[in-house]
Every structure is written in structure tokens, then in C-alpha cells.
Design brief:
There is one protein chain. By secondary structure, the chain is of the alpha+beta class. It is built from seven helices and seven strands, in the order βαββββααααββαα. Strands 2-3-4-5-6-7 form a six-stranded antiparallel beta barrel. The N and C termini lie close together (7 Å). The model is unreliable at 1-26 (pLDDT under 50).
């Protein structure tokens, strides 16, 4: 049985209460006098799914805010939804950098080929954006042309899918969908309805993107158990 946490309708903070007015006032005051330079480096927002490598019957939808470290590396800050709960981080590197790592380290990273080619990975167009859809799709497809070759290492600290009120236990290593299954279709089709996108259309736009040869030590989890 697959389980998937709905990141769009579970918007409560940790204790299930609204942020107090005093706390909001403090945040507002700080935002006036402080600079949040790292966050200003966010260059893209992506929606994606990940599975737990120790139990790939569990999956989590996440909102990813991306920042570049260098030409060879970037990272994503992962939220359960755009309004609350930082749940993890994903580091992404080129194959060239990946291949310099220790062989045991290779096993902790996952590929992005299926995420991109299946149309699952999307760069949601902002609500109310005046940019024509065709131009947005060109920009998104260009992003995918770069993303398809990257390897990601993802740690989740907060297991929101099991209802944890706080980030409990040890960090969990996450992997990516690697094939179509009933669970994959159910999760992505539900996301598509909420976001007003179509993974099948996205996949057609990405047909021209070559599928890279995936390193044999990447995606090192039991694919037969993917929900």
C-alpha cells in the first residue's frame, strides 16, 4: 500500500496553531532591518516527488527552491508546502563531479532522468503571471535540459507523511521515482489537477532531451518496491 502526503491541504505549523501576532511582528521588524542574502539566491521553484530509500512504498511531494553553488553544483531547499515546514535539502551535482566521489558515496545519490522525461518534475508557472504559456514552457524545458544530467543527494529531516509534529529521529535518505507504477500515476495525476499542469504534455515537450546513461551505482534502493 502506497502512502503519499498531500502538501497542499496540510498547511498547519508544527503545533497546529496559527502564528501569534507578536511573532509575526518580530518577523516583520527583522525583515526591515536585516538582509537575507542566501535566500535571495533562489533561482527556480520546482515541484517533485521523492521516495524513502529504506521504504519506497512511502513518497512525499515537495516544493523545491533552488540555488546554485557553482557551475557543477546546486542545492534545493525542500518544503512540504509553500507556507510552512522545511522538511529537507537536496544537493545536486554534475556527472563529472559525481564520478570523482568515493564508490560508497555513489550509492547515496539518485538520477533525474525519469523525473524529467516522464514529465513528473515541473517548474510551476506563478498564478497570475502574464508570461505567455509558450514562453514559460520554453524556459521550463531549458531548465529540464540541464536537470536531466544531474545527480541528487536528498535528506529529509521531517517525516510529515506520517504526521510528525516536529522533525524527529535521524535524517532519512530519499530517492526518486524511476518508473511508472500505479502509485506514481496516482500521485502525479493528483498533483497535475491541483497545479493545472499535464505530465503527458510535459513529456512530449521533452522528447528531444537525450536520456543519459545512468551510473550503475546511483539509485541504490529496491526498485521493485516502488509504490
Amino acid at each position: 500500500m502506497c502512502s503519499c502526503f498531500d502538501t497542499q491541504t496540510n498547511l498547519n505549523v508544527a503545533d497546529g496553531k496559527l502564528v501569534l501576532l507578536g511573532s509575526k511582528a518580530i518577523e516583520t521588524g527583522a525583515s526591515i532591518v536585516q538582509e537575507f542574502l542566501p535566500l535571495k539566491n533562489v533561482c527556480a521553484y520546482l515541484n517533485a516527488f521523492h521516495v524513502y530509500t529504506d521504504d519506497p512504498t512511502r513518497r512525499v511531494e515537495a516544493q523545491n527552491y533552488c540555488m546554485h553553488i557553482s557551475e557543477d553544483a546546486m542545492y534545493h531547499i525542500r518544503y512540504a508546502n509553500p507556507n510552512a515546514r522545511l522538511i529537507g535539502v537536496e544537493y545536486m551535482i554534475t556527472r563529472e563531479l559525481y564520478e570523482t566521489l568515493d564508490p560508497e558515496e555513489w550509492k547515496l545519490w539518485h538520477s533525474h532522468s525519469f523525473e524529467v522525461k516522464s514529465g513528473q518534475l515541473v517548474m510551476p508557472k506563478p498564478v497570475g503571471s502574464l508570461m505567455p504559456t509558450k514562453l514559460w514552457e520554453i524556459a521550463e524545458t531549458k531548465e529540464m535540459e540541464d536537470m536531466v544530467n544531474l545527480y541528487g543527494k536528498t535528506w529529509h529531516m521531517w517525516q510529515v507523511d506520517r504526521g510528525d509534529k516536529l522533525p524527529l529521529g535521524k535524517p532519512m535518505l530519499m530517492g526518486s521515482f524511476v518508473k511508472e507504477t500505479d502509485g506514481f500515476r496516482a500521485a502525479v495525476d493528483d498533483r497535475d489537477k491541483r497545479f493545472g499542469v499535464d505530465r503527458h504534455h510535459k513529456a512530449k515537450l521533452r522528447v528531444h532531451i537525450p536520456s543519459p546513461k545512468i551510473h550503475p551505482d546511483a539509485d541504490a534502493w529496491d526498485h521493485s518496491k516502488q509504490c
